[in-house]
Sequence to fold (347 residues):
Amino acid sequence: MEDYTELIPGLPEEIALQCLTRMHYIVHEVASHVCQRWRLLLRCRDFYYHRKQSGYTHKTACLVQSLHIPADSSGGNSKPENQPKYGLSVFEPDSDIWSQVDPVPKYPDGLPLFCQVASSEGKLVMMGGWNPGSWEPLRDVFVYDFTTRRWTQRVDMPSNRSFFAVGAFDGKIYVAGGHDESKNALKSAWVYDITADEWTELAPMSEERDECEGVFVGSEFWVISGYDTESQGLFKNTAEVLDITTGTWRRVEEAWGVNRCPRACVTVGQNGNFACLADTDPTIQVGACGVDLGDRTLVTGSAYQGAPQTFFLAEKKNNQGHNSKLVKLDAPDEFSGFVQSGCFVEI
Fold:
């Protein structure tokens, strides 16, 4: 590898920097092998924020999606397995490009079932879930770097936890609620610092919340609905909100107006109220899942159990959160599987 003293020989530094800033993230891994200076720059946190400030990051949806079953040699479909396998798909709406993230080396045949994903500073964080072979709960944490196109295993979650709320803000991942390995609903909460690779315990919520949903509204972490250990399936209409500055929680009444599971289907509607994406269109009323992309929301679901997945981009009106128009997407066959959950990643 060469070690140039100039970013691009013969060009002023500021012009060379602008040239590298405009490179699409998909070529960063190859470009990092040009020279040591490029390698250090492309992997630098400050360069990510420089790209973001300059408007050259790319807004993508990363989806935990069932893997496509290819047609067999006779032209039909292969016989499906009892339990579908999941992978990570990335959709870039501006270019209409779909791609697949490389499998986690520890789980080459499919992601942990019901794992959670979040993003921080252009990186993807995957945590928890169930072992796809034994169904044992996991505490694994993995981070995917789109520049190096590699997974790294990080320090485990402090305890086994499934079906928890998750949200990301300012380089940290917040988790709350869910249930433990004995199916006991939890009210505890933790925060993970991706740079320091460490977990810090937060004050607990006022009550247990299993199968809750996490949403950041500004700098507040909302944990929506869920149910207690003794009332499985009876979803609350309340939420708890963490002030990340003071570390204190407050309870909000009537935050979730429907008696249904909020996981992956919560959207901030008009006037700041929470709404269920399943009510957006009859073709996505089952298994609805949404990823907020800022000015748009990627929405998926099906009309009935077992029906094909439908994909929409919901364009927002005046950036106030109200979805005013649904634009149907034609996802390629290999990206047409059921979407379990997803997150926004600005790469």
The chain is about 10% helix and 35% strand. The longest helix spans residues 45-54. The helical segments are 13-21, 28-31, 36-42, 45-54. The two ends are 26 Å apart (CA to CA).
